[in-house]
């Protein structure tokens, strides 16, 4: 408990009140609703076959089916109306691929939403550091939005096929005894598929949530500034070599600095002396070289 209390004390749960975290909570909740309503489903329907010879009839034929809807493995025994014999019949269709795909996306969405909430609450600074975490989050969110679109559409089509394959009026046509006009076949109880209809609705609600979350994650990536044209220049412009100082106009001598050799001083006046030599005018006489005759 001490570890839990310490984590809670260090957490930044105010992010849940913001759209970025609040939508993640909704995604977490509706993902649970989506995969649970589909993955936990089991249904049953009943039929009756009334033969010309009442002793051969069966008025309570039960057919049970469940997730993942491999209906071709579901069977039931129906009377043949010939001496009390029965025949074993199987339903038609295998719709496990679309159902399992839908449930898988729901489970992974649940896990990712829970992990993202933990990151937002405890390491939000690292998430926003260099925008790397937000950019990864944006990519994963876009993938899940696309997966919810595909899985929801696939499961909606699969559910339609499941309803058709488990329609008692349609299943009755598989019984050979029902082809005889003297025998009477009818449905007694239809399967309740309201839970499966709800799972499809939750699938498209998750699609809307993940699409809407793209905008709030996109604002965290920093790409909005790039699209707006606001960017920091890579280099600052160097100042001009000439500048005006308080004492007047000063010009840099291009020959001063790193170049060696003779550096004349233009600030002092020179002249010829009596011996005909040139007086440099320096306070300290420079080293002179004379040719030896």
UniProtKB/TrEMBL annotation:
InterPro entries named among the record's database cross-references: Marvel (IPR008253), Synaptophysin/porin (IPR001285)
Family, per entry: Belongs to the synaptophysin/synaptobrevin family.
Organism domain of life: Eukaryota
Keywords, sorted A to Z: Glycoprotein, Membrane, Transmembrane, Transmembrane helix
Membrane-topology descriptor: Multi-pass membrane protein
Organism in which the protein naturally occurs: Austrofundulus limnaeus (Annual killifish)
Chain segments annotated as transmembrane: 25-44, 101-124, 136-157, 200-218
Region described as Disordered: spans on this chain: 236-293
Name by which UniProt lists this protein: Synaptophysin
Statement: the UniProt record of this protein carries the keyword Glycoprotein: yes
Boundaries of every MARVEL domain copy: 15-222
Composition skew (Polar residues), residue ranges: 281-293
Xref: Pfam families: MARVEL
GO cellular component, one term: presynaptic active zone
Cell location: Membrane
